[in-house]
Amino acid sequence: MHDPIVISGIGLVTAVGHDRETTWRNVREGVSGVRQLNGVAGLPDGLLLAADVRGLPAEPGRLRDYPIGKHAASEALADSGLLLRNRVDRTRIGVCISAVYGDSPRIAELRGGAEGAARWHEEFLASSTLARIANDFKLVGPRIGNATACATGTICTVNAMRMIEDNQCDAVLAGAITTIQPLLAAGFYNMRVLAKHDDPTCACRPFDVDRTGFVMGEGAGMLVLERASAARARGARIYAELTAGKLACDAHHVTDLSTDSSTLTHLLGSTLKKARLAPGDVSYINAHGTGTTQNDIMESRGIRQAFGAAADDLCVSSVKGNIGHLVNAAGSVELALTALALRDGFAPPTRNLHTPDPQCDLDCIPMVGRQRAFEHAVKISIAFGGHLAAVALRRWDGAEEQQAVPPLRMAA
After folding, report:
1. Which residues are tagged catalytic?
2. pLDDT of residue 412
């Protein structure tokens, strides 16, 4: 008997909310967390627009990845009720979390630019945040972290699905964390890919002909994945079923994307095949949607080629105008928001989409979200290094009994 893998817990920290429902409400309403960010080492004040997280307790002299990630993990685990059972077997709970690296204060210290910083191993070992969070909750099942640029969070989820499918564990805490890292910010700035605008909240403009680049964001997204039978036996709230997770590589260039979109087209086709879906079965796609010409056009073309005539009926949106580009955490946060979109039958808007680019010939839900009960959705991630990932989700049975969320208009 088929026992699907489902999402039974969600935790979110973003620039527009420190929890799941606040973040989702503000994304639905079109609220932006983008602002001018000053005091970033190596960058003159006034140059960097970013959606940063403020107001969470921090550890003096320690990296910010850990407290942000732990906050989201705590919410996801509490939401699922996974650890509330008597005699839960923690050897069967795995962890797939990636933070990649932190603020690297030790590098600044060595250059004479900072005082006492985090321990060296917490800065330079990509697994340090993963280990601390797993240890905090005494999760002693398999631990995996991956560094795959902007597809990292989505690939963490695919890895978690495989861990359950392979019977390595019964449940997995999967997610990713990103904080504004000065070296990475300086690198993007030198590449001239960061957006500029007099009004920071209008800077990130996915699929808009007047786009100027992307905006960095920070935060964390955590999901609890497990078999549906276990979640139902515990009485857990199930958000969505994960019907397929597929990976591919655009073997073209480290930072540039193949202009013919053939690899993305293949990835989406194979994802639909694994999920046993026809193109017309999917109603919503949460796009990578960075607000760069290269990504927006390549992604739109790939969707069009994969879905054919059914692409005309798709709702496609990007939430990066609200929360920025969370780099390695983007996929985790946006996958969580996709599950919430399925739960509530509401496709979130693409903020700042005023003049759609004719080369992005899809319904990208300009400015105002759309109430629409849909059964299947797909999340896409596209990353430097050619990493491509897609996850198909299905609205969970019984969701029709939930009260519909009323339509919301974008905040002024």
Report:
1. 150, 288, 325
2. 31
